[in-house]
Each structure stands twice: as structure tokens, then as C-alpha cells.
């Protein structure tokens, strides 16, 4: 049986959404966390050596822990634990961002609590980029850029002022940190004034241009393109035209050749894989898209597929149609 046929058989008929993706250790820690226990999380983080995996795991764990007091319980038991303090900051930031999305009355209060927690984490874990990523994430709660640290001069004249100093601190500790740059994009989307998508597109191109081969920053322009469609499109035909443009096809090829082909399965973000597969399929580069679908395996992320057809179930249907079309073209 050919390699792609084996992968197709293992994928199953219908992919599933799992925030842990193929990370089995993370999945086990999440299951433990959801029952109110924190020891598996503690052990997992103690065993996490790679910086990219540390950032990803703390982010996923925080999203799961934000609705409970499990991290607070850990911190109460081990108040001097740097890992517990970083997770406390992660959870506080997640809560503040959710409050902002839901227009909660306590948003400002939660923002200040999260800022204090992130500052404490920078002192407890001085070599960790995650507390600085947390501070970059909080910048989107200041769209008018009233805080001085959110209106620093950009390193490139054509880029707008923003939390560049915070981003630089994250970069010192983990160069080209994927999440730090995605948080910067979110800040640019939220920033007051005109031309926000144009600024975000310019930023994504600049960041990708600075990044070495294998960096996930080469996928950033695809996220901006999806965001533009989400805001401006009205029907499926518009999306098809949006992706077959030469610039879109070029961005998809760049992500494939500069990122996908220089990385292995374990270090790729599932969300990045879905965005690259979507872009290659949308720009009619079916055989290349099939390679990325094989790497995705039995998992799917709601975005960007849900912008073709709102709702998680319909998004999966679009994913399956795209995967089948690309694999058929390869065969």
C-alpha cells in the first residue's frame, strides 16, 4: 500500500477537533485538569524542554483551565513555583480576553489582574518568553494605545507604533515565537483608526520576511488573508476569487516551501497546517494541498473552514470535500 493510502486509511472517514492534536501527553494532562486535578499538568510542564512546545502547551492548558480554579489551587500549594506562576498569568490573560469579547463589566479589572500576574511571571521565569507573550496579548485590550508600552516606535518605518518592546523581549527569549507574532496581529486588528487590515498585512509580510526557513511566521500572511475574507466576503464565489488571485497563490506556495517542507510533524501547529491546506486548495494547487492534508491526519480545526460554511459540522464537511478533491487530483 502506498504511503498516502496508509495515511488515508488511518485518517478515518471523519476528522475530529482536538485542541491537543497528536500531542498525547498534553491530552492526558487536559483530561486530568478537567476533573480539577493539577498534578499531571505540573508533571507535563516539568518535562517540556522545547520552547515551541512549552508555548503551545501552556496556551492550550490555560484555555482549558480558565473556567476553574485549578491553577489557583496549584499556586496555593506551590507559591514559589515558576511554572505555576506562568500558568497563573496564562489563565488570567485568557480570562481578560474572554471578558473583552463578551463585553463583561469586569474586563478592565481582569485586565489589570492579568497584567500584574504576567509581570510577576516575568520575574519568576526571567528566561521564559511566555510571560512576555502574555503582555503582548493584553495589548489588544488597549486599542487606543493609552499605555506607553503599547505605542513604541516600530523597527520598520512603514509599520505602526505598538507593543514592539514587549515583542522584542519575547524574541530575546524565543526568537520568532509563533504565538507572540499572532498576538501582535490581534493587536493590529483591534487598533483604532483606519487601515488596520492593511497594517496587519504589511506586518505579516515583514515578519515572514525576517523569519528563517522552517519558521511558522511564513504562514502569517495566510491568516491575514482569511481575516480579510471573514470581514469582507458575502458569498462563496467571492471567497473562491479571493484565493485564486496570484498573490494568494504565491503566499500559499511560500508557506509550503519555507515552512512546511522544513519542519517535521511533531513541531507543526495543527492550526497552521489547516490554514496552509486551505490556501493551497483554494488556489487550486491540489497535489501540494494533498501533502498537507496527509500531515494533518485525523484532526481538523474549525477555522478557516468555518468561513466557507458557518458552524463546526458544516466546516468539517468543507474540510472533507477539500481533502477528497485534492487527493483525487493527486491520484
CA radius of gyration is: 20 Å
Compute the average pLDDT.
92
The first-to-last residue Cα distance is: 13 Å
The level of helicity is 55-70%
What is the total tally of β strands?
0
Helix/strand/pairing category: mainly alpha
Low-confidence stretches: 1-10
**Proportion of residues in β-strands:** under 5%
What would you call the shape?
Answer: globular
Number of helical stretches of at least 4 residues: 18
Q: What string gives the helices and strands in order?
A: HHHHHHHHHHHHHHHHHH
Largest sheet: none
Describe the structure.
The protein is mainly α and 331 residues long. The radius of gyration is 20 Å and the shape is globular. The N terminus is likely disordered.
Spell out the blueprint of helices and strands.
Blueprint: H1 3-11, H2 24-34, H3 39-46, H4 51-65, H5 70-77, H6 82-101, H7 107-124, H8 130-138, H9 164-173, H10 178-190, H11 196-210, H12 220-232, H13 236-244, H14 246-258, H15 270-282, H16 286-296, H17 302-305, H18 312-330
Helix pairs in contact: 2-3, 2-4, 4-6, 5-6, 6-7, 6-8, 7-8, 8-9, 8-10, 10-11, 11-12, 14-15, 15-16, 16-18
Region (Disordered): 1-20
Protein name: DUF4034 domain-containing protein
Biased composition (Basic and acidic residues): 1-13
List keywords for this structure.
single chain; mainly alpha; disordered N terminus; 331 residues; 0% strand; DUF4034 domain-containing protein
Amino acid at each position: 500500500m502506498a504511503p498516502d493510502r496508509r495515511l488515508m486509511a488511518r485518517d478515518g472517514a471523519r476528522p475530529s477537533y482536538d485542541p491537543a492534536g497528536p500531542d498525547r501527553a498534553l491530552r492526558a494532562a487536559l483530561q486530568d485538569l478537567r476533573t480539577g486535578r493539577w498534578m499531571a499538568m505540573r508533571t507535563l510542564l516539568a518535562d517540556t524542554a522545547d520552547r515551541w512546545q512549552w508555548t503551545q502547551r501552556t496556551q492550550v492548558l490555560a484555555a482549558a483551565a480558565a473556567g476553574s480554579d485549578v491553577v489557583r489551587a496549584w499556586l496555593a500549594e506551590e507559591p514559589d513555583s515558576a511554572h505555576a506562576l506562568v500558568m497563573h498569568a496564562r489563565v488570567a490573560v485568557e480570562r481578560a480576553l474572554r471578558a473583552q469579547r463578551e463585553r463583561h463589566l469586569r474586563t478592565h479589572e481582569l485586565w489589570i489582574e492579568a497584567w500584574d500576574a504576567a509581570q510577576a511571571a516575568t520575574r519568576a521565569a526571567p528566561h521564559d518568553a511566555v510571560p512576555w507573550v502574555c503582555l503582548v496579548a493584553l495589548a489588544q485590550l488597549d486599542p487606543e494605545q493609552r499605555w506607553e508600552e503599547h505605542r513604541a516606535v516600530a523597527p520598520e518605518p512603514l509599520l505602526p507604533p505598538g507593543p514592539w518592546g514587549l515583542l522584542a523581549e519575547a524574541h530575546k527569549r524565543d526568537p520568532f515565537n509563533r504565538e507572540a507574532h499572532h498576538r501582535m496581529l490581534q493587536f493590529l486588528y483591534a487598533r483604532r483608526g483606519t487601515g488596520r487590515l492593511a497594517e496587519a498585512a504589511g506586518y505579516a509580510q515583514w515578519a515572514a520576511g525576517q523569519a528563517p526557513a522552517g519558521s511558522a511566521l511564513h504562514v502569517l500572511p495566510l491568516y491575514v488573508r482569511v481575516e480579510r475574507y471573514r470581514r469582507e466576503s458575502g458569498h462563496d464565489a467571492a471567497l473562491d476569487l479571493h484565493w485564486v488571485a496570484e498573490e494568494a497563490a504565491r503566499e500559499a506556495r511560500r508557506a509550503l516551501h519555507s515552512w512546511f517542507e522544513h519542519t517535521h510533524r511533531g513541531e507543526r501547529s495543527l492550526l497552521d497546517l489547516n490554514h496552509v491546506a486551505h490556501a493551497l486548495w483554494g488556489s487550486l494547487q491540489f497535489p501540494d494541498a494533498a501533502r498537507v492534508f496527509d500531515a494533518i491526519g485525523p484532526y481538523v480545526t474549525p477555522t478557516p473552514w468555518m468561513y466557507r460554511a458557518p458552524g463546526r459540522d458544516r466546516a468539517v464537511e468543507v474540510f472533507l470535500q477539500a481533502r477528497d478533491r485534492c487527493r483525487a487530483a493527486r491520484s
